[in-house]
Specification:
With 536 residues, the protein is of the alpha/beta class. The protein folds into three domains: 87 residues, 2-Layer Sandwich (Alpha-Beta Plaits); 315 residues, Rossmann fold (3-Layer(aba) Sandwich); 76 residues, Immunoglobulins (Immunoglobulin-like, Sandwich), CATH 2.60.40.10. It contains 15 helices and 24 strands. The strands form seven sheets. It has a seven-stranded parallel sheet with strand order 7-10-6-11-13-14-15, sandwiched between helices. A hairpin with a 3-residue loop joins β8 and β9. It is globular, with a radius of gyration of 23 Å.
Length: 536
């Protein structure tokens, strides 16, 4: 009996004092009205301009967290606030199970979700997400040197030759550290031209960016590096924000929360593209880890954040991962997200790199999306030496840089169009598979396709794209039409969605619909058009 009492005592002590990670979600944002009356209090003019250009309205998740809620959680017994997300209206916290559970009783708290899903089952809360496994995904006319192949494979050199080098586009790099970027020669051109705009170190909670690790240094060099006749990045004239979200000393879901926090800041600052060579699938605490069945596009915390970033008009690019030869060979978080462009790796001869993580997602979406050179990629070390290294960590920024150049060439396009044009230009677009996805893009072909769409927009037709789609459809209007109504019907002829649209707000969300074929009718005062939409 004494032994049993001792065991129970030890169990209670463990439950009370062991530190767990969790998210606490709030009910509302009482300060939202003040934000909508003065959006510059939270977002930069560049961020607002990006939304205006793409017809994206401000919504409640743009508003900041309620400060009084944050303060009460911060002062709660035994609770440490690790990260914040206005998009998901929550805090990432750390504390004992008992202290975290106590927060659920606060009137402004919607629910609490533990990173360890078994604890959620004990609480019987309404949690809606699941945790993670993460690892670094590494295994003008320019003199490109040995970096020529990784750009020429994508026909990126043709865009460079017409002065599309990323100028005017802003790329946010989310990584583990940028050691040596401030001193190594291949990055000096960025500093000379004031192209490093700033950033933040979420791991150390400081503005010190050029510390901790070399992984971000290498990925940045694939886009912004420049050493004449040795290395030219894919977007040498783009501007960059650098964010450290990855703690290489540990594998903990707080890094997912740092990732979302950085994405929110990238949005605030007006970034056009987020590139991240990080992946999540398993943690030091196995209870926090993901399973393949959770790779459904909008379940994981970082995947949710990535999808929201896309809804703000940002193109999100992520490494597919290097786990093809492991027990968990499939693409992880956030590359598996519905609206993230997951980048796999090929060799210099365009053949599949055997480490590149495979698809499909658990819900059978095409993943990876597209491919770039990730085996023996040419890049810079922290000392400034031009070296080669392998991993989807490098195919990802190579692709992100080319997307910046492409977007510069067609500034009228929104982010959904950019993603669709890139996929359509890929060499396996009509026959995607689980190794290559849609294949290797051709950015000159993408530009040709985009120019055809420009011509099509001048005709008397609505153009709906992408089609098939996994989430959103953009409707391009004929020249003389500004407003219309779109109605979607299922195979039984029942109305499943109806919305008034305009040239300024022309993105239709299909996220509430099941996969399948739908019939649409777009009706304006002078034009009526019907067709099919396939929801993947």
């Amino acid at each position: 009996m004494k032994k049993l009492i001792l065991i129970l005592t030890l169990f209670i002590a463990y439950e009370s004092f062991s530190q767990e990670d969790a998210w606490v979600y709030f009910n509302d944002k009482p300060n939202a009205a003040a934000f909508f009356s003065n959006p510059l209090s939270e977002l930069s003019q560049k961020s607002l301009d990006r939304r205006t250009a793409q017809g994206i309205a401000l919504v409640i998740n743009d508003a900041p967290l309620e400060v009084t809620y944050v303060d009460q959680i911060s002062s709660a017994t035994g609770i440490t606030v690790m990260a914040k997300s206005k998009w998901l209206n929550c805090l990432h916290i750390r504390g004992s199970v008992t202290d975290i559970q106590a927060l659920a009783a606060l009137p402004f708290v919607n629910f609490v979700r533990f990173a360890d899903n078994s604890l959620n089952n004990k609480m019987a809360t309404s949690a809606a997400i699941s945790p993670v496994n993460k690892s670094l995904e590494v295994q003008e006319s320019f003199n490109y040197g040995t970096s020529l192949n990784q750009i020429q494979m994508l026909n990126g050199h043709l865009l460079h030759q017409t002065n599309y080098t990323g100028a005017g586009k802003i790329i946010a790099v989310l990584d583990s550290g940028f050691f040596g970027v401030d001193t190594a020669q291949p990055f000096q051109r960025l500093f000379t031209n004031n192209l490093i705009l700033g950033g933040y170190n979420y791991v150390s909670q400081s503005n010190n960016l050029y510390v901790l690790h070399n992984h971000g240094t290498m990925t940045l060099s694939c886009m912004g590096g420049f050493t004449d006749n040795q290395l030219v990045g894919t977007a040498p004239d783009a501007s960059y924000y650098l964010f450290i979200t990855e703690d290489v000393a540990t594998e903990n879901p707080v890094e997912e929360s740092y990732w979302v926090q950085a994405a929110e800041e990238a949005d605030r600052l007006g970034a056009d593209i987020i590139t991240s060579s990080l992946g999540y699938f398993g943690y030091d605490n196995p209870n926090y880890s993901y399973t393949y069945s959770q790779m459904t596009g909008n379940t994981a915390f970082a995947s949710k954040g990535a999808n929201i970033a896309f809804s703000k008009g940002i193109v999100v690019v992520a490494s597919a991962g290097n786990s093809a030869n492991s027990a968990d060979p499939h693409i992880g978080v956030p590359a598996e997200a519905n609206n993230v462009l997951a980048i796999g790796a090929v060799k210099a001869d365009r053949s599949y790199a055997s480490f590149s993580s495979i698809g499909p997602s658990f819900d059978l979406r095409v993943k990876p999306d597209v491919m770039a050179q990730g085996q023996s990629s040419v890049l810079s070390s922290t000392a400034g030496s031009i070296i080669t290294a392998s991993g989807t960590s490098f195919s990802c920024p190579i692709m992100a840089g080319m997307i910046a150049c492409f977007w510069q060439a067609i500034p009228w396009a929104n982010n959904a169009q950019i993603v669709q044009f890139v996929k359509q230009s890929a060499d396996r677009f009509l026959t995607p598979n689980n190794l290559f996805g849609y294949g290797i893009p051709d950015f000159q072909l993408a530009l040709n396709i985009a120019n055809l769409v420009t011509v099509e927009n001048n005709k008397e037709n609505f153009v709906l794209y992408p089609n098939p789609t996994s989430s959103f459809v953009t409707i391009s209007f004929p020249v003389d039409i500004n407003d219309a109504k779109i109605t979607l019907y299922n195979s039984l002829g029942q109305v499943v969605l109806e919305k008034t649209i305009s040239k300024s707000v022309s993105i239709l969300s299909l996220e509430t619909l099941n996969s399948g074929v739908y019939y649409y009718k777009v009706q304006s005062d002078i034009v009526s058009q019907s067709g099919k939409i396939i929801k993947e």
